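re: ur question from yesterday

yeah so i grabbed the chain u mentioned. its 282 aa long if i counted rite. heres the sequnce exactly as i have it in my notes:
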Amino acid sequence: MGTGGQNGLRPGKGNTEGVTEGKGKTDEVTMTSNTDASASCQYRCIECNQEAKELYRDYNHGVLKITICKSCQKPVDKYIEYDPVIILINAILCKAQAYRHILFNTKINMHGKLCVFCLLCEAYLRWWQLQDSSQSIDPDDFIRYAKEWDFYRMFAIASLEQTAYFIGIFAFLWVERPIRAKEKLNFTLLLKALLLSSYGKLLLIPAVIWEHDYTPLCLRLIKVFVLTSNFQAIRVTLNINRKLAFLAILSGLLVESTMVYFFQRMEWAVGSDCAIYKSQDF
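ran it thru and got these structure tokens back, copy pasting raw so excuse formatting
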């Protein structure tokens, strides 16, 4: 499947580092290769999840040809020709092909920054809820609840709850590991996938800014969307069935709920999702 020029391929979408000269029928053939990458950084077919050595071949004179997977006989990664907006829409729709493209065939190193930003959004929501639940005529109370310490405390609690959620997922997968075939779990890649798939938390800020009567419903839908994205990320990263991925999510929620219960017993105003839903009426 050739293209008329290089405009059909977005820079950076095919990991073009490590281009080597080919030795086919002509000396003008070049192709992408991962010879300088480790075995864990190999490309993956977005359709069948099989490893691939290259995503496309770059022929001189502006001719590109997408590599065909030897297993499923389909293009290894059709998204290398897609616009980033289309890729984002497919990721929002939780398509496994889009997740494989993002996790395996691109080099995205923004998961750390995205995690911090999502935690800031969640901390702001809890901080806002803390002020809203303590209505008082005395303006000094507003100043007291607007202190930076309260926001930092909400950020720390949100971080601990998310850590507990991830620990629950990792613990279940580690215990379940001997039951499966002898496969090495890449927990670093799984953590990256979970952080990237939690981007739905960014919607918490608009839900607070445009506040109206159905804000609690929006928060529930955002929570469901984040869990669905995490579920798909686990399936794609570890190539496991839906049942195991669903049980992993449940394990994470169980540990997270235990952490929330502990904070409530300590009489900390955690502003968690459960507390928010109970304190507001639909």
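noticed a couple things. The chain has a mean pLDDT of 75. also The longest helix spans residues 148-176.
anyway ttyl
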